[in-house]
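Section 4.2 – Deliverable D4.2 (structural model, holo form)

The reporting period included a commitment to supply a predicted holo structure for the target in complex with pyridoxal-5'-phosphate. Inputs used:
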Amino acid sequence: MSNLIDKLICENLKALQPYESARRIFAGGDSDSETWLNANESPFANDFNIDTEHFNRYPDCQPTSVLLPYAKYARVHANQLLVSRGADEGIELLIRTFCTPGKDSILICPPTYGMYAISAETCNVGIERAPLQADFSLDMSAISACQGKVNLVFICSPNNPTGTTIDKAQLKQVLELFADSALVVVDEAYIEFDAANTWSTELAAYPNLVILRTLSKAFALAGLRCGFTLANSDVIQSIMKVIAPYPVPEPVAQIASQALSHNGLKKMIEQVEYLHQQKQSVKQQLSQFPELELVGDDKANFILFRHPQKQALMDFLVANSVLIRDQSKQVSLDNCLRITLGTQQQNEKLLALMASFFKQQEISA
Ligand SMILES: *Cc1c(COP(=O)(O)O)cnc(C)c1O
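Output (structure tokens):
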């Protein structure tokens, strides 16, 4: 780094490593020749229409063509909803709105999604950690110990990468514990795969409840960058002070509103059902491999497993153009890899490669 840049860059950014998104790790990869089972994306690419008529105008800050159908889908009022550039922007907006840099902190429960910590670090906001227990339930005493120390509590359910849903009674306890001191943010990025367990109908009961949603996973629109924050209207109004004037580009609004139409929702539900079926069959076959231990639960569109040869297996898959995600650097997840469910064909390719890997191991042993 040059002297000037070194002198100017914010103190809290000096040691920060950028988030290693699945895309960055394999940047420049060819998505047609490679099988991407590493980012919890949907394997389906659905068709949409674009009308260019208003492209010369700035878009609405919060387009009702997206807001109204999503509010109906999520069973909230339009004033309890905010559209943003993915759920990731929702995370950052919450931190920027409710945490004072250099003073306030958030609470996270690892192993979990990496962006809560990265966003906090880039905003110079502190991080308290209450790791999940061995069975990936919340550690209530570690969480209680943070009461009064944090402004936001991030809880991912179903949790990425463990696939576990947080117990209702535990989450209720967390909401009550922080009723007077913090917002409790339930990240429901994968809720379509576990729809019965949503918290979206509980906003009236808990003034400090916030929910994050996205079109990136079950709705098969990771490329769109469209996500939602669900919260009581005073929370939404506060975030509106911080959000950019035009956060939702016009083509994004058009596509999102088509994805949320009757037909769009029907397609999403069918694709979720397909992936559930794939998940059962892939899990069953994975469990037959030697020394392979399934880890966590299957409430989302991915499977986590542990294997003592995880590095050799990972290298073998990459060499054969099948990309999955290493999760072994997270607490409690030593030797763990995560597979996103793809199409039947993609899943079979992965399983066939794994079978030949284990066969090779057996011969050389
Ligand atoms: C993928 C993911 C997100 C990010 O969603 P975007 O809308 O694509 O920004 C947020 N939270 C979790 C837990 C995720 O897995």
